[in-house]
Protein backbone atom coordinates (compact mmCIF):
# COMPACT_ATOMS: atom_id res chain seq x y z
CA UNK A 1 0.00 0.00 0.00
CA UNK A 2 2.82 2.38 0.90
CA UNK A 3 4.60 1.64 -2.35
CA UNK A 4 1.45 2.15 -4.40
CA UNK A 5 0.68 5.44 -2.61
CA UNK A 6 4.29 6.46 -3.06
CA UNK A 7 4.12 5.97 -6.83
CA UNK A 8 1.14 8.30 -7.32
CA UNK A 9 2.64 11.78 -6.91
CA UNK A 10 5.59 13.39 -8.82
CA UNK A 11 3.13 12.66 -11.64
CA UNK A 12 0.22 14.35 -9.80
CA UNK A 13 2.50 17.04 -8.49
CA UNK A 14 3.80 17.68 -12.02
CA UNK A 15 0.29 17.95 -13.41
CA UNK A 16 -0.60 20.38 -10.65
CA UNK A 17 2.57 22.33 -11.34
CA UNK A 18 1.57 22.88 -14.95
CA UNK A 19 -1.91 24.02 -13.96
CA UNK A 20 -0.44 26.45 -11.43
CA UNK A 21 2.75 27.37 -13.30
CA UNK A 22 2.03 26.92 -16.98
CA UNK A 23 5.62 26.92 -18.19
CA UNK A 24 9.15 27.27 -16.89
CA UNK A 25 10.28 30.71 -15.81
CA UNK A 26 12.01 32.73 -18.54
CA UNK A 27 14.59 35.55 -18.25
CA UNK A 28 12.08 38.11 -19.54
CA UNK A 29 9.83 37.33 -16.56
CA UNK A 30 12.53 38.09 -13.98
CA UNK A 31 12.98 41.50 -12.32
CA UNK A 32 16.24 42.11 -10.45
CA UNK A 33 16.27 44.37 -7.37
CA UNK A 34 19.63 45.91 -6.34
CA UNK A 35 20.73 48.46 -3.76
CA UNK A 36 22.61 51.54 -4.96
CA UNK A 37 23.80 52.19 -1.40
CA UNK A 38 25.47 48.77 -1.06
CA UNK A 39 28.91 48.13 -2.49
CA UNK A 40 28.84 45.77 -5.51
CA UNK A 41 25.06 45.23 -5.47
CA UNK A 42 24.31 46.89 -8.81
CA UNK A 43 27.49 45.52 -10.37
CA UNK A 44 26.50 41.98 -9.39
CA UNK A 45 23.00 42.58 -10.71
CA UNK A 46 24.29 43.64 -14.12
CA UNK A 47 26.66 40.64 -14.26
CA UNK A 48 23.81 38.25 -13.47
CA UNK A 49 21.45 39.87 -15.95
CA UNK A 50 24.03 39.69 -18.75
CA UNK A 51 24.78 36.04 -18.01
CA UNK A 52 21.08 35.12 -17.99
CA UNK A 53 20.07 37.46 -20.84
CA UNK A 54 17.60 39.31 -18.63
CA UNK A 55 16.57 42.60 -20.30
CA UNK A 56 18.51 45.58 -18.92
CA UNK A 57 15.22 47.37 -18.29
CA UNK A 58 14.25 44.66 -15.76
CA UNK A 59 16.47 46.23 -13.09
CA UNK A 60 15.24 48.20 -10.09
CA UNK A 61 17.91 50.28 -8.31
CA UNK A 62 16.86 51.08 -4.76
CA UNK A 63 18.32 53.37 -2.13
CA UNK A 64 17.67 50.95 0.71
CA UNK A 65 19.23 50.25 4.13
CA UNK A 66 22.39 48.16 3.85
CA UNK A 67 22.13 46.27 7.15
CA UNK A 68 20.79 42.72 7.32
CA UNK A 69 17.70 43.82 9.26
CA UNK A 70 15.46 46.84 8.69
CA UNK A 71 12.44 48.48 10.26
CA UNK A 72 8.94 48.05 8.83
CA UNK A 73 8.85 51.76 7.95
CA UNK A 74 12.15 51.54 6.06
CA UNK A 75 10.98 48.40 4.27
CA UNK A 76 7.83 50.14 3.06
CA UNK A 77 9.53 53.41 2.13
CA UNK A 78 12.79 52.23 0.58
CA UNK A 79 12.00 48.70 -0.69
CA UNK A 80 8.31 47.87 -1.13
CA UNK A 81 7.09 51.23 -2.46
CA UNK A 82 9.76 51.58 -5.20
CA UNK A 83 9.30 47.95 -6.27
CA UNK A 84 5.53 48.40 -6.34
CA UNK A 85 5.86 51.60 -8.39
CA UNK A 86 8.11 49.88 -10.94
CA UNK A 87 5.70 46.96 -11.32
CA UNK A 88 2.68 49.25 -11.64
CA UNK A 89 4.40 51.24 -14.38
CA UNK A 90 5.97 48.37 -16.33
CA UNK A 91 3.43 45.58 -15.76
CA UNK A 92 0.10 47.16 -14.74
CA UNK A 93 -1.92 44.03 -15.54
CA UNK A 94 0.42 41.70 -13.66
CA UNK A 95 0.95 39.46 -16.70
CA UNK A 96 4.58 40.16 -17.63
CA UNK A 97 6.71 39.53 -14.54
CA UNK A 98 6.66 36.40 -12.37
CA UNK A 99 9.81 36.56 -10.27
CA UNK A 100 11.82 39.06 -8.24
CA UNK A 101 15.52 38.57 -7.46
CA UNK A 102 16.87 40.43 -4.45
CA UNK A 103 20.59 41.09 -4.69
CA UNK A 104 23.54 41.14 -2.33
CA UNK A 105 23.33 44.30 -0.21
CA UNK A 106 19.60 44.25 0.56
CA UNK A 107 18.28 43.47 4.07
CA UNK A 108 17.32 39.90 4.91
CA UNK A 109 14.70 40.60 7.55
CA UNK A 110 12.04 43.22 8.25
CA UNK A 111 11.11 43.84 11.88
CA UNK A 112 7.52 44.04 13.16
CA UNK A 113 5.89 47.50 13.08
CA UNK A 114 6.73 49.79 16.00
CA UNK A 115 4.17 50.20 18.75
CA UNK A 116 2.04 53.32 18.94
CA UNK A 117 1.80 55.23 22.26
CA UNK A 118 -1.67 53.75 22.81
CA UNK A 119 -0.36 50.22 22.16
CA UNK A 120 2.48 50.75 24.66
CA UNK A 121 -0.06 51.85 27.27
CA UNK A 122 -2.24 48.79 26.59
CA UNK A 123 0.80 46.55 26.74
CA UNK A 124 1.76 47.77 30.23
CA UNK A 125 -1.78 47.21 31.48
CA UNK A 126 -1.93 43.65 30.10
CA UNK A 127 1.53 42.84 31.47
CA UNK A 128 0.38 43.96 34.94
CA UNK A 129 -2.68 41.72 34.64
CA UNK A 130 -0.52 38.78 33.54
CA UNK A 131 1.86 39.29 36.50
CA UNK A 132 -1.08 39.48 38.88
CA UNK A 133 -2.52 36.26 37.47
CA UNK A 134 0.88 34.57 37.83
CA UNK A 135 0.95 35.47 41.52
CA UNK A 136 -2.62 34.21 41.98
CA UNK A 137 -1.72 30.94 40.28
CA UNK A 138 1.16 30.41 42.70
CA UNK A 139 -1.13 31.08 45.67
CA UNK A 140 -3.79 28.65 44.41
CA UNK A 141 -1.18 25.95 43.75
CA UNK A 142 -0.38 25.88 47.45
CA UNK A 143 -4.10 25.52 48.24
CA UNK A 144 -4.51 22.69 45.71
CA UNK A 145 -7.74 24.17 44.31
CA UNK A 146 -7.71 22.60 40.84
CA UNK A 147 -10.87 24.28 39.62
CA UNK A 148 -9.68 27.81 40.40
CA UNK A 149 -6.19 26.98 39.13
CA UNK A 150 -7.60 25.89 35.77
CA UNK A 151 -9.66 29.10 35.52
CA UNK A 152 -6.65 31.31 36.34
CA UNK A 153 -4.42 29.53 33.84
CA UNK A 154 -7.07 29.99 31.15
CA UNK A 155 -7.29 33.71 31.94
CA UNK A 156 -3.50 34.04 31.85
CA UNK A 157 -3.33 32.28 28.48
CA UNK A 158 -5.88 34.75 27.09
CA UNK A 159 -3.93 37.73 28.43
CA UNK A 160 -0.70 36.28 27.00
CA UNK A 161 -2.26 36.03 23.54
CA UNK A 162 -3.41 39.64 23.80
CA UNK A 163 0.12 40.68 24.76
CA UNK A 164 1.51 38.83 21.74
CA UNK A 165 -0.94 40.60 19.45
CA UNK A 166 -0.05 44.03 20.83
CA UNK A 167 3.69 43.33 20.76
CA UNK A 168 3.34 42.17 17.13
CA UNK A 169 5.93 39.48 17.82
CA UNK A 170 4.72 37.47 14.84
CA UNK A 171 4.63 40.39 12.40
CA UNK A 172 8.30 40.27 11.40
CA UNK A 173 9.31 38.38 8.27
CA UNK A 174 11.95 37.79 5.64
CA UNK A 175 12.14 40.75 3.25
CA UNK A 176 11.82 38.35 0.31
CA UNK A 177 8.73 36.67 1.73
CA UNK A 178 7.04 40.05 2.16
CA UNK A 179 8.05 41.12 -1.36
CA UNK A 180 6.23 38.08 -2.74
CA UNK A 181 3.02 39.94 -1.81
CA UNK A 182 4.15 43.43 -2.84
CA UNK A 183 1.26 43.69 -5.34
CA UNK A 184 -1.39 42.81 -2.78
CA UNK A 185 -3.44 45.85 -1.75
CA UNK A 186 -3.49 45.04 1.95
CA UNK A 187 -2.98 41.94 4.06
CA UNK A 188 -2.58 41.10 7.78
CA UNK A 189 0.98 40.98 9.12
CA UNK A 190 0.36 38.64 12.05
CA UNK A 191 1.98 35.26 11.38
CA UNK A 192 1.91 33.81 7.84
CA UNK A 193 -0.34 33.74 4.79
CA UNK A 194 -0.91 30.66 2.58
CA UNK A 195 0.99 30.36 -0.69
CA UNK A 196 -1.34 29.82 -3.63
CA UNK A 197 1.30 27.81 -5.52
CA UNK A 198 1.87 25.23 -2.75
CA UNK A 199 0.94 21.73 -3.89
CA UNK A 200 -0.33 20.83 -0.43
CA UNK A 201 -3.28 23.21 -0.88
CA UNK A 202 -4.45 21.80 -4.21
CA UNK A 203 -8.15 21.07 -4.26
CA UNK A 204 -8.69 22.78 -0.89
CA UNK A 205 -10.56 25.95 -0.09
CA UNK A 206 -8.14 28.13 1.87
CA UNK A 207 -9.28 31.38 3.44
CA UNK A 208 -7.31 34.63 3.05
CA UNK A 209 -5.08 33.27 0.27
CA UNK A 210 -3.34 36.11 -1.61
CA UNK A 211 -3.62 35.92 -5.40
CA UNK A 212 -1.24 38.65 -6.66
CA UNK A 213 1.87 36.68 -5.87
CA UNK A 214 5.42 36.88 -7.22
CA UNK A 215 8.08 34.23 -6.67
CA UNK A 216 11.13 35.69 -4.91
CA UNK A 217 14.69 34.38 -4.84
CA UNK A 218 17.90 35.97 -3.57
CA UNK A 219 21.45 36.17 -4.91
CA UNK A 220 23.35 36.82 -1.72
CA UNK A 221 26.04 35.46 0.50
CA UNK A 222 28.86 36.26 2.92
CA UNK A 223 30.82 38.01 0.13
CA UNK A 224 30.36 39.32 -3.40
CA UNK A 225 32.78 36.65 -4.68
CA UNK A 226 30.45 33.94 -3.40
CA UNK A 227 27.58 35.50 -5.34
CA UNK A 228 29.65 35.51 -8.52
CA UNK A 229 30.48 31.86 -7.87
CA UNK A 230 26.78 30.96 -7.37
CA UNK A 231 25.93 32.54 -10.73
CA UNK A 232 28.81 30.89 -12.58
CA UNK A 233 28.35 27.46 -10.98
CA UNK A 234 24.64 27.41 -11.81
CA UNK A 235 25.31 28.12 -15.48
CA UNK A 236 28.16 25.62 -15.68
CA UNK A 237 26.14 22.79 -14.12
CA UNK A 238 23.28 23.40 -16.53
CA UNK A 239 25.75 22.76 -19.37
CA UNK A 240 27.56 19.71 -18.03
CA UNK A 241 24.95 18.26 -15.66
CA UNK A 242 24.69 17.68 -11.91
CA UNK A 243 27.04 15.05 -10.47
CA UNK A 244 27.33 13.80 -6.93
CA UNK A 245 25.47 12.07 -4.12
CA UNK A 246 22.18 12.92 -2.42
CA UNK A 247 22.38 12.88 1.39
CA UNK A 248 19.25 12.79 3.54
CA UNK A 249 19.53 12.89 7.32
CA UNK A 250 16.30 11.81 9.02
CA UNK A 251 16.10 11.32 12.78
CA UNK A 252 13.81 8.30 13.04
CA UNK A 253 12.80 5.23 11.00
CA UNK A 254 10.20 5.79 8.28
CA UNK A 255 6.70 5.71 9.84
CA UNK A 256 5.16 4.55 6.55
CA UNK A 257 1.49 5.46 6.17
CA UNK A 258 0.84 6.03 9.88
CA UNK A 259 -0.85 9.28 10.86
CA UNK A 260 1.89 11.70 11.92
CA UNK A 261 2.26 15.45 12.39
CA UNK A 262 4.82 18.12 13.20
CA UNK A 263 8.41 16.91 13.33
CA UNK A 264 7.47 13.36 12.40
CA UNK A 265 5.66 14.54 9.25
CA UNK A 266 8.74 16.39 8.04
CA UNK A 267 11.00 13.53 9.02
CA UNK A 268 8.86 11.28 6.82
CA UNK A 269 9.16 13.81 3.98
CA UNK A 270 12.95 13.40 4.19
CA UNK A 271 12.52 9.61 3.83
CA UNK A 272 10.25 10.20 0.83
CA UNK A 273 12.75 12.56 -0.77
CA UNK A 274 15.40 9.85 -0.63
CA UNK A 275 13.00 7.33 -2.22
CA UNK A 276 12.10 9.75 -5.02
CA UNK A 277 15.73 10.01 -6.04
CA UNK A 278 16.41 6.30 -5.58
CA UNK A 279 13.40 5.45 -7.76
CA UNK A 280 14.51 7.69 -10.62
CA UNK A 281 18.18 6.72 -10.26
CA UNK A 282 19.01 10.41 -10.66
CA UNK A 283 22.08 10.01 -8.44
CA UNK A 284 23.34 7.78 -5.63
CA UNK A 285 21.48 8.26 -2.34
CA UNK A 286 22.62 7.93 1.24
CA UNK A 287 19.87 8.02 3.89
CA UNK A 288 20.61 8.09 7.61
CA UNK A 289 17.70 7.62 10.04
CA UNK A 290 19.58 7.69 13.33
CA UNK A 291 19.26 10.54 15.82
CA UNK A 292 22.89 11.61 15.26
CA UNK A 293 23.63 13.84 12.29
CA UNK A 294 26.18 13.13 9.58
CA UNK A 295 29.60 13.69 11.08
CA UNK A 296 32.74 15.37 9.63
CA UNK A 297 33.99 13.68 6.48
CA UNK A 298 31.00 11.36 6.02
CA UNK A 299 29.45 13.12 2.99
CA UNK A 300 31.83 13.49 0.03
CA UNK A 301 30.60 14.85 -3.32
CA UNK A 302 27.31 16.11 -1.88
CA UNK A 303 24.94 17.31 -4.62
CA UNK A 304 21.66 17.29 -2.65
CA UNK A 305 21.22 17.56 1.11
CA UNK A 306 18.36 17.82 3.57
CA UNK A 307 18.56 17.04 7.26
CA UNK A 308 18.09 18.28 10.81
CA UNK A 309 18.53 19.39 13.71
CA UNK A 310 21.70 21.26 14.67
CA UNK A 311 20.73 24.78 15.68
CA UNK A 312 23.09 27.48 14.35
CA UNK A 313 25.92 24.93 14.32
CA UNK A 314 26.96 23.77 10.87
CA UNK A 315 28.56 20.33 10.88
CA UNK A 316 31.41 20.03 8.40
CA UNK A 317 30.38 16.62 7.06
CA UNK A 318 30.30 17.61 3.38
CA UNK A 319 32.46 18.24 0.40
CA UNK A 320 30.05 19.97 -1.98
CA UNK A 321 29.77 19.19 -5.68
CA UNK A 322 29.57 22.12 -8.05
CA UNK A 323 26.02 23.44 -8.18
CA UNK A 324 24.95 21.63 -4.98
CA UNK A 325 21.51 22.33 -3.53
CA UNK A 326 20.55 21.70 0.08
CA UNK A 327 18.97 22.97 3.25
CA UNK A 328 18.95 22.20 6.96
CA UNK A 329 15.72 22.18 8.95
CA UNK A 330 16.37 24.30 12.04
CA UNK A 331 15.35 27.70 13.37
CA UNK A 332 16.91 30.96 12.13
CA UNK A 333 19.53 29.32 9.88
CA UNK A 334 19.39 32.37 7.59
CA UNK A 335 19.33 35.00 10.35
CA UNK A 336 22.66 36.30 9.03
CA UNK A 337 24.87 35.85 5.98
CA UNK A 338 27.47 38.44 6.97
CA UNK A 339 28.34 37.82 10.64
CA UNK A 340 31.84 36.31 10.45
CA UNK A 341 31.46 34.47 13.76
CA UNK A 342 28.14 32.84 12.93
CA UNK A 343 27.87 29.12 12.14
CA UNK A 344 24.29 29.17 10.83
CA UNK A 345 23.79 26.63 8.07
CA UNK A 346 22.88 28.91 5.16
CA UNK A 347 25.93 31.12 5.63
CA UNK A 348 28.44 28.31 6.05
CA UNK A 349 26.96 26.16 3.27
CA UNK A 350 27.40 29.09 0.88
CA UNK A 351 30.97 29.59 2.10
CA UNK A 352 31.67 25.89 1.56
CA UNK A 353 30.34 25.81 -2.00
CA UNK A 354 26.59 25.22 -2.39
CA UNK A 355 24.81 27.05 -5.22
CA UNK A 356 21.36 27.15 -3.60
CA UNK A 357 19.96 26.85 -0.10
CA UNK A 358 16.86 27.69 1.94
CA UNK A 359 16.50 28.92 5.50
CA UNK A 360 14.51 31.08 7.92
CA UNK A 361 15.51 34.51 9.25
CA UNK A 362 13.77 33.77 12.58
CA UNK A 363 11.75 30.99 14.23
CA UNK A 364 9.47 29.69 11.45
CA UNK A 365 7.97 26.55 13.08
CA UNK A 366 8.64 23.30 11.27
CA UNK A 367 5.50 23.45 9.10
CA UNK A 368 6.89 26.54 7.34
CA UNK A 369 9.76 24.64 5.71
CA UNK A 370 9.41 23.52 2.09
CA UNK A 371 8.50 19.85 1.79
CA UNK A 372 11.79 18.17 0.81
CA UNK A 373 10.18 15.38 -1.24
CA UNK A 374 8.32 17.92 -3.39
CA UNK A 375 11.23 20.36 -3.67
CA UNK A 376 13.94 17.85 -4.59
CA UNK A 377 11.61 15.71 -6.67
CA UNK A 378 10.57 18.60 -8.90
CA UNK A 379 14.15 19.87 -9.15
CA UNK A 380 15.31 16.41 -10.24
CA UNK A 381 12.55 16.23 -12.84
CA UNK A 382 14.26 19.04 -14.73
CA UNK A 383 11.18 20.79 -16.10
CA UNK A 384 10.94 23.73 -13.70
CA UNK A 385 13.46 26.21 -12.35
CA UNK A 386 14.79 26.44 -8.81
CA UNK A 387 12.40 29.30 -7.97
CA UNK A 388 9.36 27.38 -9.24
CA UNK A 389 10.33 24.21 -7.32
CA UNK A 390 10.57 26.36 -4.20
CA UNK A 391 7.22 28.07 -4.88
CA UNK A 392 5.45 24.72 -5.25
CA UNK A 393 6.94 23.27 -2.06
CA UNK A 394 6.80 26.38 0.17
CA UNK A 395 3.59 26.66 2.28
CA UNK A 396 3.68 30.34 3.28
CA UNK A 397 4.44 33.94 2.32
CA UNK A 398 4.80 36.96 4.62
CA UNK A 399 6.81 34.73 6.93
CA UNK A 400 10.42 33.75 7.67
CA UNK A 401 11.75 31.64 4.78
CA UNK A 402 14.38 32.70 2.21
CA UNK A 403 15.50 30.99 -1.01
CA UNK A 404 19.11 31.78 -1.93
CA UNK A 405 20.18 30.91 -5.46
CA UNK A 406 19.71 31.76 -9.12
CA UNK A 407 15.94 31.52 -9.65
CA UNK A 408 16.50 30.32 -13.24
CA UNK A 409 18.82 27.50 -12.14
CA UNK A 410 17.71 24.14 -13.53
CA UNK A 411 20.50 21.60 -12.86
CA UNK A 412 18.74 18.72 -14.64
CA UNK A 413 17.36 20.64 -17.63
CA UNK A 414 19.36 18.59 -20.14
CA UNK A 415 18.85 15.16 -18.61
CA UNK A 416 16.44 12.68 -20.16
CA UNK A 417 13.00 13.27 -18.70
CA UNK A 418 12.37 10.45 -16.29
CA UNK A 419 9.30 9.05 -14.62
CA UNK A 420 9.73 11.07 -11.45
CA UNK A 421 6.96 10.44 -8.94
CA UNK A 422 6.58 12.46 -5.74
CA UNK A 423 4.58 11.26 -2.78
CA UNK A 424 1.58 13.50 -2.32
CA UNK A 425 2.20 15.89 0.58
CA UNK A 426 -0.31 14.96 3.27
CA UNK A 427 -0.81 17.86 5.63
CA UNK A 428 -3.32 15.81 7.60
CA UNK A 429 -0.49 13.47 8.52
CA UNK A 430 -1.53 10.40 6.55
CA UNK A 431 0.63 8.68 3.96
Q: What report would you give on this structure?
A:
The N and C termini lie close together (10 Å). Helix content is 38%, strand content 16%. It is globular, with a radius of gyration of 22 Å. It has three domains: 2-19 and 222-404; 27-111 and 172-201, no CATH class; 117-167. With 431 residues, it is of the alpha/beta class. A four-stranded parallel beta sheet has the order 2-1-4-8, with helices on both faces. A four-stranded parallel beta sheet has the order 10-9-11-12, sandwiched between helices. Strands 3-5-6 form a three-stranded mixed beta sheet. It contains twelve helices and 15 strands.
Q: In terms of topology, how is this protein built?
A:
Blueprint: H1 2-6, H2 9-20, E1 30-35, H3 41-52, E2 59-62, E3 69-70, H4 72-90, E4 99-103, E5 109-110, H5 117-143, H6 146-167, E6 173-174, H7 175-179, E7 193-194, E8 215-219, H8 224-240, E9 245-249, H9 262-280, E10 285-288, E11 299-307, E12 318-328, H10 345-352, E13 357-360, H11 372-381, H12 386-393, E14 396-397, E15 401-404
Parallel strand pairs: 1-2, 1-4, 3-5, 4-8, 9-10, 9-11, 11-12
Antiparallel strand pairs: 5-6, 7-14, 13-15
Task: Provide a short characterization of the protein structure.
The chain is α/β, with parallel strands linked by helices. Helix content is 38%, strand content 16%.
